[in-house]
């Protein structure tokens, strides 16, 4: 019985020493090699576990540009003949249709044009009759060839003038038949040449408008594109049909487009080239003509090992991650790992020299104290 008691004491002692040795080993490691964080500290610090992941990092060219109308989808409107603005039938920003009357112009030049046309029409009747009479006489060997040639020349000249003036009437939207009879118009209409929106109105009622002045501008919102300026150093990265992302100033929503034109000329002042891009799903995007845009052109893509940006902590010139090495009922024990970082994109940072790291502090690493 005494022997059994002694044996029990010896075994219990060995077990106690063994346990003490293991506890001392954990405390030693956590003190010297690991960083301990209590479960409560982990929660109150809003820390989150995460894993290193494979991410596609896009190589980008950053530039700026504008939303502009495609060639043929905008129009600058001016007067066909000079005059004063009699009526304005549109407002800035208004949607208009092709052929819709947006201005009326009156003036002395319009009256003089109609007067010339009416007089020429009357003259044409007279010289045509005279030409046909002399032609008939000449065929009967009654008239002279000289008289016939003169009459024919006058007839053809008058007919040419009449045709030219009639075309002007048609361009002005006036009924030439009515003008021939002496029924003159007080004004002529200016019509929108395309479907679109009025972007500018540069005149007011009573203002004189000549043929060189732009009265208004119209653009078609269904035919917009992006015009961008790319720096000379980035030209080699561009190619036709490349995808790009753009967003309007003050708007975080990104839209996509496709590069479809690359200029071959460098602007000597800005050292940029102009490119254009077709907007994807244009009908689903609410855009404004001439709006400023920020553009990212995607010219390459790489798959890399990456962690959330918040997982990387900088100390001095070095960068560190913290991954779970051990834990017990009260604490987590993290290993500090020095890493080499690469590019950052969309909230992720590339890790160059490590792979497959699990259970790292993906969020809240800034709460960790590094000695």
Unreliable runs, pLDDT <50, ≥5 residues?
1-31
Count up the helices.
5
The value of Rg in angstroms is 42 Å
Architecture per CATH nomenclature, i.e. the level-2 architecture of the largest domain: Beta Barrel
- Classify the fold: give the CATH topology of the largest domain: Elongation Factor Tu (Ef-tu), domain 3
Tell me the number of strands: 22
Strand content: 35-45%
Indicate the structural class.
Answer: alpha+beta
For the record, the count of structural domains works out to 2
Largest sheet at a glance? 6 strands, antiparallel, barrel
User: Mean pLDDT, as a whole number?
Assistant: 85
CATH top level label of the largest domain: Mainly Beta
Strand order of the largest sheet: 3-12-15-14-13-16
Taken from the alpha-carbon principal axes, the silhouette is rod-shaped
Q: Approximately how much helix is present in the residues? A: 25-40%
Distance between the termini: 57 Å
CATH evolutionary superfamily of the largest domain: Efflux pump adaptor protein, beta barrel domain
How does this structure look, described?
With 371 residues, the protein is an alpha+beta fold. The protein folds into two domains: 35-72 and 220-371, Efflux pump adaptor protein, beta barrel domain (Elongation Factor Tu (Ef-tu), domain 3), CATH 2.40.30.170; 74-219, RNA polymerase II/Efflux pump adaptor protein, barrel-sandwich hybrid domain (OB fold (Dihydrolipoamide Acetyltransferase, E2P)). Helix content is 27%, strand content 38%. The chain contains five helices and 22 strands. The protein has helices at 2-32, 39-44, 108-139, 145-171, 176-180, and strands at residues 34-38, 48-50, 53-69, 74-77, 83-88, 95-96, 101-106, 187-191, 196-201, 208-209, 216-219, 224-231, 243-248, 255-262, 272-279, 292-308, 313-315, 318-327, 331-339, 341-345, 348-351, 360-363. A six-stranded antiparallel barrel has the order 3-12-15-14-13-16. It has a four-stranded antiparallel beta sheet with strand order 1-19-18-17. A hairpin with a 2-residue loop joins strand 17 and strand 18 (318-327). The protein is rod-shaped, with a radius of gyration of 42 Å.
